[in-house]
TrEMBL record:
Name of the protein this chain belongs to: 3-oxoacyl-ACP synthase
Chain segments carrying region Disordered: 27-47
Biological source species: Mucilaginibacter boryungensis
Compositionally skewed regions (Basic and acidic residues) per UniProt: 36-47
Length: 150
């Protein structure tokens, strides 16, 4: 089962790496556009364009910073061992879906099954933390029963 955790961890890592690559691409694109932009006789138009490119670069930097935070959080999570209670790094199977408690990375498909990669700080992750097999919790009017904690 540790193999399952390792594979889900790897998929989350690939998700974060892709986010980082996209952010870096956006920053490079904005920098390249700014370098190619030449000042025209319409000074205000030039300044507006440069400001828009700077804002685009700033958004890319913010996305890169967030992706780095996700990577740091992901690197703190152990894929070894099995726990009896839900904690960071746990794979949780419920009557309403499977979850990997790590970082918010959306749906991960592995070996024909879907897992929702969620943060422990997310609303459902928060309610799930500390649960053990046969515990119940409710989220958005939906009742979840913990069937297995890996």
């Amino acid at each position: 089962m540790n193999n399952l955790k390792q594979q889900l961890h790897q998929l989350c890592s690939e998700f974060v790496q892709q986010r980082m690559a996209n952010a870096q691409q956006a920053i490079q694109s904005a920098e390249q556009s700014a370098a190619e932009d030449t000042k025209s006789s319409a000074g205000d138009k030039y300044e507006t364009g440069r400001e828009m490119l700077q804002q685009e670069k700033d958004r890319g930097m913010a996305q890169l910073t967030e992706a780095n935070k996700l990577l740091v959080a992901l690197n703190r999570i152990s894929t070894a061992g099995k726990s009896t209670r839900v904690e960071e790094g746990s794979v949780v199977k419920t009557n309403n879906g499977n979850f990997y408690i790590a970082v918010s990375a959306g749906v991960l498909n592995l070996a024909g099954e879907s897992y929702f990669a969620i943060s422990a700080a997310s609303p459902i992750g928060y309610k799930m933390m500390g649960c053990k097999v046969d515990d119940w919790f409710e989220q958005n009017g939906k009742k979840y029963r913990v069937l297995e904690v890996i």
